[in-house]
# Entry
Amino acid sequence: MNIYVGNLAYSASEKTMRDLFEGFGEVTTAKIVTDKFTGSSRGFGFVEMPNEDEAQRAIAELNGKDFEGRKIVVNESRPREATGGNDYRHSSPRRDGGGGHRDGGRNQRY
# Structure
């Protein structure tokens, strides 16, 4: 089972998060999500546990518990929702009006 772990302290490491969950059973992976530019923690991560019963017990007992000074959020991870194929971050129009001219194409003659 893939488990979401949120509200992590920025000082938390993958090792300390793995150690916390290993108290409930086998942990396949423990990953903290980091910013791709700075490399710093984004404050959440994921833990993979192969045994469903152990994973459910970890979720029940760790959700809302203090971990490195913060109350963590622990629940079953849900898959990302599809964006519908229209990601405006990569297809935004030019704000200067386009045209490649300094005036932004406003004084074009037709």
About this structure: The longest strand covers residues 41-48.
